[in-house]
């Protein structure tokens, strides 16, 4: 018997940010697998089996999902945001590449979701209006010197930079090192935003500049946007300023 596996993203916050396609796939699943905190955000039927896990070994979770699908289940693997951005889709394909040949014959689909970077950018205005990149600051799966090198090159190349996973209880210091590195290569006036828990009841947006940014603002629910010298800030009579990065870039910049 052969089942199926769908990897889907439930967005960074509220249910209205889950796509209709992901909702339908979720409703059709017999088994739903994911980090427990993500599963708690879902409405599921009592006929569905939930397999909640800690935020630990993604590869192990992917293998368990593939085994269930191979046994005939309709499996949904759930990620926050988009499943392809620092999330479960890559773990599923890594498990398939190194797993039993039979897994390659399974019906596997990845359904897109709204990633935290896009939700945060929409709240702020249009900071990603020109070229940008996303860097995951966690060194759980890659060496820290590589992260520092990428920060340096991205800053030099003039990308707006979205920083995922900036800090956690186990990694409180790296975000400080990251800002120190960025300050060497980008003007202190470049706008910076800390977008925390976007779309959730405890959402918080802090706008500052690279020179004045306090990395202690960041935690594991925060997405940081580091603008370029070209990123503009529009002050308003009330409320937060808007940020936008113009579409046009001069040859000199
Ligand atoms: C392991 S990554 C997963 C990213 C997810 N797949 C996505 O596409 O958004 C987790 C990081 O995403 C960011 N993040 C997720 N949800 C967020 C939210 N609601 N507000 C701000 N940042 C968020 C944070 O930087 C967090 O540390």
Report the portion of residues in β strands: 15-25%
Instruction: Summarize the main sheet.
Output: 5 strands, parallel
Order the strands across the largest sheet as they lie in space.
Answer: 3-2-4-1-5
Along the chain, the helix and strand elements come as EHEHEHEHEHEEHEHEEEEE
Q: Approximately how much helix is present in the residues? A: 25-40%
**What is the C-alpha radius of gyration, as a whole number of Å?**
20 Å
List cofactors, ions and other ligands.
Answer: S-adenosylmethionine
Distance between the termini: 59 Å
Number of helices: 7
How many extended strands? 13
The secondary structure category is alpha/beta
Low confidence ranges:
none
The overall pLDDT average reads 95
Shape: elongated
Notes on the protein architecture:
By secondary structure, the chain is α/β, with parallel strands linked by helices. It is 28% helix and 25% strand. It has 7 helices and 13 strands. It has a 5-stranded parallel beta sheet, sandwiched between helices. Strand 9 (191-196) and strand 10 form a beta hairpin. Helix 3 (58-70) crosses helix 4 (88-98) and helix 6 runs parallel beside helix 7 (174-183). The chain is elongated. S-adenosylmethionine binds next to helix 5, strand 9 and strand 11. S-adenosylmethionine (SAM) is lined by residues 12-13, 79-82, 85-87, 115-116, 120, 164-165, 195-200, 220-223.
């Amino acid at each position: 018997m052969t089942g199926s596996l769908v990897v889907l993203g439930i967005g960074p916050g509220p249910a209205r940010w889950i796509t209709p396609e992901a909702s339908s796939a979720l409703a059709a699943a017999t088994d739903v697998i994911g980090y427990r905190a993500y599963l708690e955000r879902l409405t599921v039927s009592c006929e569905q089996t939930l397999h909640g896990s800690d935020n630990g070994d993604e590869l192990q979770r992917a293998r368990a999902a593939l085994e269930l699908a191979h046994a005939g289940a309709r499996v949904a693997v759930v990620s926050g945001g988009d499943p392809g951005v620092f999330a479960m889709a890559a773990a599923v394909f890594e498990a398939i590449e190194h797993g039993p040949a039979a897994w390659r014959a399974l019906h596997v689909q990845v359904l897109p979701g709204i990633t935290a970077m896009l939700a945060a950018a929409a709240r702020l205005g249009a900071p990603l209006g020109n070229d940008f990149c996303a860097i995951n600051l966690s060194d759980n799966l890659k060496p820290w010197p590589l992260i520092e090198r990428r920060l340096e090159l991205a800053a030099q190349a003039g990308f707006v930079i979205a920083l995922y996973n900036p800090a956690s209880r186990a990694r409180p210091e790296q975000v400080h090192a990251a800002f120190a590195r960025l300050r060497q290569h980008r003007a202190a006036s470049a706008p910076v935003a800390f977008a925390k828990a976007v779309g959730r009841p405890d959402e918080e947006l802090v706008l500052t500049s690279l020179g004045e940014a306090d990395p202690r603002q960041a935690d594991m629910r925060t997405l940081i946007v580091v603008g370029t010298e070209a990123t503009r800030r529009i002050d308003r009579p009330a409320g937060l300023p808007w940020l936008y990065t113009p579409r046009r870039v001069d040859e000199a910049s």
